[in-house]
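Quick one: structure tokens for this chain, please?
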Amino acid sequence: MTSPPASQPRTPWVEIAIAALPAALHALLLLGRLHPDELFQSLEIALHRAYGFGVVPWEWQVPPNAATATQPWGIRNHAVPMLLAALFKAGDLIGVSSVMGRRVLAEVPQFFLHLAMLGAVWRVAARRVSVPMARACLWLVALYGPLVWFGGRTMSEAFSTAFLVWGLERLDDQDAKAGWWVWGGALLGFAQVTRYGSAAVIVPAMLWLLITRRFRTFALATLGGVVVAFGLGLLDKLTWGDWFHSLIHYVRFNVVSGSAAAQFGAHPWWTYAPRLLLAPFAFIGLFFTARRDRGLGPASTVLVLAVALAVIFTRYPSMNAAAPWFGLIAVAALGFLLLEPGTKRPSIFIAAALGYVVILSATAHKEDRFLYPALILLTVAAAPTFVAWAAEAWSRRVANRVLVGVIVASGLFFFLFPSPYDVLRKEQFQLTAKASKGVTGYVLMNEGMWGSPGFFYLGQNVPWCPCDFPQDGCFQLAARDPRFNRGVYVSNGGEAEKARDASSKAAFEAAGFRLVEQRGLASLFER
């Protein structure tokens, strides 16, 4: 990692490394996954590249009629899987080849990327408040629920958002040397490589540089992005056979053809509006930024009322239809208040985040995870003002201390409660990793392929099958085949499922398996 310009305070990398640990430990200790892509678009493909086995989803397959196929195919690039595959092979050379050993190896580059992102957060805050307050911003962002949940996960959103924060911070620094702006553009290019949807963040950010007449920064950032783009095109040429093959086919599938919406579903344009409220101190910090610079005017009042009403209406199902509209009013008020150049606020972060939300809302296919970059960018942009306000409020009255504590806790502990970003199948993945020691065959009951831990958490090329019931052919085959010596049953939970649980576990025992451990809703069997 290169050193910052001499004019800036020294970045406290040791403290930042400690702040980066929660996300990494969360991913390594809990396992599970936020979305199937966490496994099947990175770890499984890397395993397949390194050893020739692993589940290969359709995005990575070459159809027999590839030369004449009209449907998009090969919509992912090989950058991340190639890096992970190289790490796995290097691990073999030093004796690190267990399931968890490989998972730790996969976490190493992600940890340093997360570390670099938090370093960028510290620098943004240090430029706008002070070094002590920058440390408070660092921890506020590092312990923000979504960042802990996503930061250590092998998902494109996690990789890309870290590059976005890092790159935007470099472009945000108007006093930086020219080389830093080139590097900032390259970092945005890496964000695009790791997740093509990040173009919806990058385009508004680059437009903002033009709007604010930072033409030299725009030109140098473009230069850095073009270099990375050339590398992406070359990679696609070497792996898929055509320049920019994956990018072109990704756009065809997700934007032009409407195939993504047809295959995975479409949602109303206002879907993301109430979910922006998952960034509590982002909205509060941005509100105080606006109030400080413009005074408490009508737009500020609209913002406060809109956020409050959206929260209230989201909590009551009978009023839920109104919540998206008030969420949109809040976003519009933020845009009016905040989208102007100035040294007091990181406007490029705000422009990028709000532009991304607008573009994202205009697309038909929507998933909750797609909003993650906006939540992080808004939180990073608002953290300096929020911390400055919290420090002032804390010093005045006890009631203010309570208010500050409640707001901070809402960001730190919000995700202890059910949310769209809960980690799923933790115990199932943990027991599968445990079963990998000595496994020669594996059966997974009451789980499908895309909910399974795949080959990666088995660690080797052994026969395995997912099934739903004991009478399924897959389980019947496993019961008779002595190679299948490990099994996991996953319960749906609840009183209604007790009879099914009992019959399924009895089927394992009848096939010669014995129950060796139960964690949560998952049970591990061996024979």
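The CA atoms of residues 379 and 393 lie 19 Å apart.
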